[in-house]
Amino acid sequence: MKVNKPNKFKEFFKRFGVYVAAGVIVLAVSLTFAITAIVNSNREVVDVGGNNVKFSLPMNDPSIIKDFSSTTLQENTTLNQWEAHLALDLTSEDGLVYSVLDGTVSKVGYEYNYGNYVEITHANGLVSYYYSLGKDLLVKQGDKVVGGTQIGSAAKSASDELDMGNHLHFYMTLDDNKVDPNNYLDLQNK
Questions:
Q1: How far is CA 4 from the centre of its chain?
Q2: Surface-to-core class of residue 159, CB atoms within 10 Å of its CB (0-12 exposed, 13-18 middle, 19+ buried)
Q3: What's the pLDDT tens digit per position in 110-144?
């Protein structure tokens, strides 16, 4: 006489199948929330003290000469080389340059490669940098500025970008890491 052995796999699922299904659902929901959190961490809104911050544009009606790119090399015709461009190069009809946000002027100076510059420290680890400015700087170290305060004018003072003519070389850092200014500035709806 042949005795049928119970299938252990079937018996396990009869007994614990509900728990296995619940575990799979919990895992799927957890992964969905984790992925959503990672995607949303790259959003353009900066929270400062519970309030969303409104950034001003660094120039009136700016045109982008060279956009930010950390992944695609761009040609620098002055230096005759291809490079990552972790900044925005902007120009405008009047060439006036403005602070993008309230803050304190932390540095003013000159660097041979990037020309005359102003560095402004904002809240929560955000810093904005304005390079290739003219000598007519309107702020000095320690000055408090609000978004939209004129700090100078675009010029051709950056030796690394002479072929671009008068322009603003603008970049931002968050906690000492360069970030894409496009995530903060509304350049499409200028």
A1: 67
A2: middle
A3: 998 889 999 999 998 999 999 999 999 999 999 99
CB 92 within 8 A of CB 185: no
What size, in residues, is the chain? Answer: 190
Q: How far is it, in rounded angstroms, from Cα 61 to Cα 165?
A: 17
Q: How far is CA 72 from CA 9, 68, 181, in A?
A: 53, 9, 16
CB 144 within 8 A of CB 4: no
8 A C-beta contact, residue 101 and residue 147: yes
Of the candidates 183, 22, 180, the residue with the CA atom closest to the CA atom of residue 86: 180
Rounded to two decimals, the pTM is: 0.69
Q: Can you tell me the distance from the alpha carbon of 25 to that of 9, in angstroms, rounded to the nearest whole number?
A: 21
